[in-house]
UniProtKB/TrEMBL annotation:
Chain intervals with Low complexity compositional bias: 27-50
Protein name in the entry: Peptidase M60 domain-containing protein
Domain Peptidase M60 as annotated: residue spans: 456-778
Signal peptide limits: 1-19
Keyword Signal carried by entry: yes
Lineage summary: Bacteria, Pseudomonadati, Pseudomonadota, Betaproteobacteria, Burkholderiales
Region ranges (Disordered): 26-50
Gene3D superfamilies: Peptidase M60, enhancin-like domain 3
NCBIfam families reported in the protein's UniProt record: ImpA_fam_HExGH (NF038322)
Key words of the record: Signal
Alphabetized InterPro entries for the sequence: IMPa_helical (IPR041549), IMPa_N_2 (IPR040711), Pep_M60_3 (IPR042279), Peptidase_M60_dom (IPR031161)
One Pfam family here: IMPa_helical
C-alpha cells in the first residue's frame, strides 16, 4: 500500500522550499577555437544530496542527474498540487464572469476577426471558445495583475454601435473582473485609463454605459521609458499598437505590478505585430493573416450556439482538471485503462507537451520562467522516469497501463534548451541505438559553415546531437539571415505508440525548434539525439551562415554543397560502416537526405559508401533531375551553350538555381510506402530507382511538361514521371542499369496509325488524336511524346544519326531553361527570341509554350509534329513561330522496341510524312 500521508507531507515540504523555483542554467561562454573530442562534455552531475535539496537544485538548474527514484513521487505530488491550485484559481475567475444568467451565448465575431488562444496555460485561460473549438477571447492572471483579450473590437461595439450587443452581458462581467477581480464587483466611480493603438473614447463611452467614468490619460503606455503608468487603473491596447522589441516585456511588467491590461483587436482579419506582442505577454497567441476572412462557416470563429450552457463554457476553460486526473492515475500502480479507445488521459499529457513546445519554440526557458513551476516538476519527473524506459515489447498500449502511461508522459514532457537531461538506457528504438550515447563529441568549439539553400527552410548542419550530451551553439556570422533556429531531425511523421501494436520508440524523438540567439550562447540537449539541423528565414539563397558548435558529434554525413575533401568523405564513410549513430544524412544542391542507418545500409547493399552516396544519390538521383531541369549546378555542353548564345538566352546564373530543397526521409512514411511532399518520406532507404526519382520529379516539374489539352492528359503523376524517365535513361547509359517504368513508343506509334486510318484531315484528324492519346488510359505513350521531341532535337539540331542520352537530356535542359526564362525574364521588346513575337505577355498555355520553345530549340517549325500528336495550338502561337521563318520539320519517328526505351542505340528512324510503314519492332 502506498504511504500517501508521507508523500503528502514530503510534497508540502518541497512546495515550501521551491515554490519560486527557477534560475539561470549557467551556460557559460566559449573562448577556445581549437577542436578536439571527448566522451564527457556535459557538466558534472550535481553532488548527491538529501532528497529535498536535490529536488530544489534540479528545479533551479534543470539538471536532473542527481535525482533518484525516491524523488519521483515527490515531484509527481508537487505537480499535482500545483495543477490543482491553478485549476482552482482559473475556475474561480471564470465562474465569477459566467454568472447564472449567462447560459445561452449567441455570440458572433463574424469573419472580421482573428483568433485568440490561451497558449501559456499557467497564466492564460480561454474565456470564449467557439463551437468550432477556436479561441475568441481569453483572460490572464499574473500575481494580482489581470488581462483580457478579444479577437474583435468588442469594447468598441459595446460602446458606440448597435451591433454585436449579444456580447454585452458577458463582456460587462469580464470587464468588472478585469478591474476588480470579481465579475460581480462594483466598478470604481472613476478610473484612469490610457490607450495605445486604440480609441480612448470607446473606453469612456463604455464606462458611462456601465455606470462609471473613465478619465483619459495621455500616458504613452507603449513607450518603455514612460513612468506615468503607475497612476493608471487600466491600459487598453489595440491592433494599431506600434510594435517594438521590448513591448512584450513592458506589458508583462504592468501585469506584475498588479495593473489591468486589455487588448482589443481592431484590425478585423488583418494581422497586428504590436497586438501579437501584447497578447504574448498575456500568455496568448494570435491567429495569423488573414484572420478568419477566408475561414469556412464550420471553422470560422464566429459563434457560440444559443444552446451553450454555463457548465459547457466553464468546461472549455478548465485546463487542468484532466491533468489532475491523469497525475492521480500515474501515482498509482493498479491502473487498468482502455487507452486504445479512450484517449482522454493521454490528451492531458499532450496538452502539457504542446505547451512546452510553444514556450521553447518561442525562445522561452522553462527553468527560468516564473510561470512554469508546474512544467518544471513534470519535466524533472519525466527525466527521472526515463532512466528506466526500455522501448519494444512488452511495452504496448494493450499491455500494462501504468507502464504505458508513464512512458508516454516521460516522452512528452521535454526541455531541450538546457544543459543536461537523462537518456533511455537501451537506446531509442529504431530512432537511435544505445551505442550513440557513448560517441565522442567536440570538447572545444568548432567553426562550421552552413550553406543556406533558399530564402527559408531547414537544412542539415553536419553534426549530430548525442543523447544526453550538451551542445553549445554560437552564431559567428548570420549572413544577414533574419532568424535562425536549432533542432534535431526534419520529420513529418515519427510513428505513434497509440496506433502501433508495440511501443517501439519515443513518441516524439525529434526536438522542438529552439531559436538561436545572436547575443549569447544557445545550450541544447536531447534525450534521444539526432542530426542537428538549422531552421532559417529571411535568408539569401546561397549564403553561408557561420556557426561555432561545441559538443556536436561527427557521423555519416556528406555535404556536397561545399566540396568536401576526400578525408571528410572517408570519415563519413567510416561512420556509415560503423552504424553507431542512428542516422545517415546527405546535403546536396537542391536536396537533402535523412535516413536511418539501417535503411542506408540496406539501400547501399554491396556498394562502397562512396559509390552509394556519391555515385547513386548525388550523381544519379539529384544530378539527373537537375540536368533535365536545366539547373545551373549541371554544366552545359559546348553545343548547348552556343545555342543559348545564338538565341540570346541567359542560360546560366542565379535564375537557373535549383528553386528549392527536396528533403527525403527514409524511416516511416506518412502514407503508403513512399509519400510525396516535402519532406517526402518512406519505409525504405533512399536510392536512385524509379520511386525516389518520381518523388523528386513532383517537387521540381515545370509546366512545360504538364500537357493537358482541354484539361486532360499528362497531368500530375505523369508530368513528374517525364523527369523520372530521364533519370532512368541517364542511369541506364552511365551505369548499365535499365530499370523503371516504360516509355511506350510503340503504343504511341500505334495511336498514329489508328488516327490516320480514320481518313480524317486537318483539325478533325488532330482532334481525334487528342482523344486517343491525351484522354487515353495510359501515361506511357503520353510521356513518350516529350522524348520523341528530344529525339528530333538530336536529329535536326545536333545532326546525330541516332539520339543519345546526352542529346536527349540536353533538349530537356534547354526546354526547362526556356520555361524559366519566359516566366522570369520576359522581354516584351525582344520576345521573338523565345518564339513568342505575337503574344502580348508571357501568359501562354502550356501546349503553346511547349511548341514555341521546341521550335526555337530544334530550329525548325514543329507544327506538323504537334498536330500529329493531337496537341491543340493557338493561332497566336502558330503565327509567332511562322514569323521566325523556320523550315517546317518533316514528320519522322524514332522507333524503339518495347522494353528498349532506355537503349537508344537500338532504335531506328522511320519517315512518316508521306506514309505510315509498319513499326519495325
Amino acid at each position: 500500500m502506498r504511504k500517501q500521508s508521507i508523500l503528502a507531507l514530503t510534497s508540502l515540504v518541497v512546495l515550501s522550499l521551491v515554490a519560486c523555483g527557477g534560475g539561470d542554467k549557467g551556460s557559460g561562454s566559449a573562448t577556445s577555437s581549437a577542436t578536439g573530442t571527448t566522451s564527457t562534455p556535459s557538466p558534472s552531475a550535481p553532488t548527491a544530496t538529501p532528497s529535498t535539496d536535490a529536488i530544489t537544485l534540479a528545479l533551479q538548474t534543470g539538471d536532473p542527474r542527481a535525482l533518484t527514484a525516491t524523488d519521483r513521487d515527490v515531484l509527481m505530488q508537487r505537480a499535482l498540487a500545483t495543477a490543482t491550485s491553478l485549476r482552482s484559481k482559473q475556475s474561480q475567475a471564470l465562474s465569477s464572469m459566467y454568472s447564472a444568467d449567462i447560459t445561452q451565448l449567441a455570440l458572433d465575431h463574424s469573419n472580421s476577426s482573428i483568433s485568440i488562444t490561451a497558449t501559456k496555460t499557467t497564466i492564460a485561460t480561454p474565456l470564449i471558445v467557439s463551437d468550432s473549438g477556436t479561441g475568441m477571447a481569453a483572460i490572464a492572471q499574473v500575481g494580482t495583475g489581470r488581462g483580457l483579450a478579444y479577437g474583435a473590437n468588442v469594447l468598441g461595439m459595446m460602446a458606440g454601435t448597435t451591433t454585436q450587443q449579444q456580447h454585452l452581458p458577458l463582456f460587462t462581467r469580464a470587464f468588472r473582473w478585469l478591474m476588480t477581480g470579481d465579475g460581480a464587483g462594483a466598478l470604481p466611480a472613476n478610473f484612469a485609463v490610457a490607450t495605445a493603438g486604440y480609441d480612448v473614447n470607446s473606453v469612456k463611452q463604455f464606462a458611462t454605459r456601465v455606470g462609471s467614468t473613465a478619465t483619459a490619460s495621455s500616458c504613452k503606455i507603449e513607450d518603455p521609458s514612460n513612468t506615468c503608468w503607475q497612476t493608471l487603473d487600466l491600459m487598453v491596447f489595440g491592433g494599431d499598437t506600434v510594435n517594438s522589441a521590448g513591448l512584450s516585456a513592458l506589458v508583462r511588467s504592468y501585469l506584475e505590478a498588479g495593473k489591468a491590461v486589455m487588448y482589443m483587436h481592431t484590425k478585423g482579419w488583418q494581422d497586428s505585430a504590436g497586438g501579437r506582442s501584447v497578447v504574448n505577454a498575456l500568455g496568448m497567441s494570435m491567429g495569423g493573416y488573414p484572420g478568419n476572412y477566408f475561414a469556412s462557416d464550420t471553422n470560422l470563429i464566429k459563434s457560440v450556439g444559443s444552446t451553450r450552457t454555463r457548465e459547457a463554457s466553464l468546461a472549455n476553460g478548465d485546463q487542468f482538471g484532466a491533468l489532475a486526473t491523469t497525475l492521480n492515475l500515474m501515482s498509482r500502480n493498479d491502473v487498468k485503462l482502455d487507452l486504445a479507445n479512450d484517449r482522454s488521459t493521454l490528451k492531458a499529457i499532450d496538452a502539457i507537451h504542446n505547451g512546452l513546445a510553444a514556450i521553447q519554440s518561442s525562445g522561452g526557458d522553462v527553468f527560468a520562467d516564473p510561470d512554469a513551476d508546474l512544467y518544471r516538476s513534470l519535466i524533472l519527473w519525466a527525466d527521472q522516469y526515463r532512466t528506466g524506459v526500455v522501448y519494444g515489447a512488452p511495452l504496448a498500449i494493450s499491455g500494462d497501463s501504468d507502464q504505458f502511461l508513464r512512458t508516454y508522459a516521460s516522452d512528452s514532457w521535454l526541455a531541450f534548451n538546457r544543459a543536461a537531461t537523462t537518456v533511455p538506457p537501451k537506446g531509442s528504438g529504431d530512432y537511435m541505438p544505445a551505442a550513440a550515447a557513448a560517441l565522442p563529441v567536440a570538447a572545444d568549439f568548432e567553426s562550421i559553415d552552413v550553406t543556406i539553400p533558399q530564402s527559408s527552410g531547414i537544412t542539415l548542419i553536419g553534426r549530430g546531437a548525442v543523447p544526453g550530451k550538451t551542445v553549445t551553439v554560437q552564431i559567428d556570422d548570420a549572413a544577414g539571415v533574419t532568424s535562425l533556429g536549432l533542432q534535431t531531425s526534419y520529420l513529418r511523421v515519427w510513428g505513434s505508440p497509440i496506433d502501433e501494436a508495440v511501443y517501439k520508440r519515443p513518441r516524439r524523438p525529434n526536438s522542438f525548434g529552439i531559436p538561436l540567439s545572436k547575443q549569447k550562447d544557445t545550450v541544447f540537449v536531447t534525450p534521444f539525439g539526432g542530426p542537428l539541423m538549422l531552421s532559417y528565414s529571411g535568408a539569401t539563397a546561397g549564403s553561408v551562415v557561420k556557426l561555432r558548435i561545441k559538443g556536436g558529434a561527427k557521423y555519416a554525413h556528406y555535404d556536397f554543397t561545399r566540396n568536401p575533401s576526400q578525408a571528410e568523405i572517408a570519415e563519413a564513410s567510416a561512420a556509415l560502416k560503423r552504424g553507431d549513430f542512428g542516422w545517415q544524412t546527405n546535403k546536396l544542391v537542391g536536396g537533402e537526405v535523412q535516413q536511418t542507418i539501417g535503411y542506408a545500409k540496406s539501400a547501399m547493399g554491396t556498394l562502397s559508401p562512396e559509390d552509394y552516396v556519391v555515385g547513386r544519390l548525388k550523381n544519379m538521383l539529384f544530378d539527373s533531375n537537375h540536368f533535365a531541369n536545366g539547373y545551373n549546378n549541371m554544366p552545359m555542353s559546348d553545343r548547348a551553350q552556343a545555342l543559348c548564345d545564338g538565341l540570346g538566352w541567359t542560360c546560366t546564373g542565379p535564375l537557373h538555381r535549383a528553386p528549392g530543397v527536396q528533403h527525403f526521409i527514409g524511416w516511416i512514411a506518412t502514407c503508403g510506402f513512399l509519400c510525396s511532399g516535402n519532406p517526402s518520406d518512406g519505409f525504405a532507404g533512399i536510392g536512385s530507382g524509379w520511386g525516389h526519382a518520381h518523388e523528386l520529379g513532383h517537387n521540381t516539374v515545370q509546366r512545360v511538361m504538364h500537357i493537358a489539352p482541354n484539361g486532360k492528359g499528362c497531368v500530375v503523376e505523369c508530368d513528374n514521371n517525364i523527369l523520372a524517365s530521364a533519370t532512368m535513361l541517364r542511369q541506364a547509359a552511365l551505369l548499365g542499369e535499365d530499370t523503371g517504368h516504360s516509355l511506350d513508343h510503340k503504343g504511341l506509334y500505334a495511336y498514329i496509325v489508328a488516327n490516320r486510318a480514320t481518313n480524317l484531315a486537318g483539325e478533325a484528324l488532330r482532334a481525334d488524336m487528342e482523344v486517343r492519346l491525351w484522354q487515353g488510359p495510359s501515361q506511357d505513350p503520353m510521356r513518350a511524346v516529350h522524348f520523341q521531341m528530344a529525339f528530333q532535337y538530336s536529329k535536326l539540331r545536333a545532326a546525330l544519326a541516332q539520339p543519345t542520352m546526352e542529346s536527349t537530356l540536353e533538349f530537356f535542359q534547354l526546354l526547362t531553361k526556356g520555361d524559366r526564362l519566359v516566366a522570369r525574364a520576359w522581354d516584351a521588346n525582344n520576345k521573338a527570341k523565345y518564339g513568342m513575337g505575337r503574344f502580348a505577355n508571357n501568359t501562354i498555355e502550356n501546349e503553346d509554350l511547349f511548341y514555341v520553345l521546341s521550335s526555337k530549340i530544334i530550329g525548325q517549325d514543329m507544327r506538323k509534329h504537334f498536330a500529329m500528336y493531337g496537341i491543340p495550338l493557338s493561332q497566336t502561337a502558330l503565327d509567332s513561330v511562322a514569323d521566325l521563318a523556320l523550315p517546317i520539320a518533316p514528320l519522322t519517328f524514332y522507333a524503339l522496341a518495347p522494353g528498349k526505351h532506355n537503349q537508344l542505340a537500338t532504335g531506328q528512324w522511320t519517315p512518316i510524312d508521306a506514309a505510315t510503314p509498319a513499326y519495325p519492332f
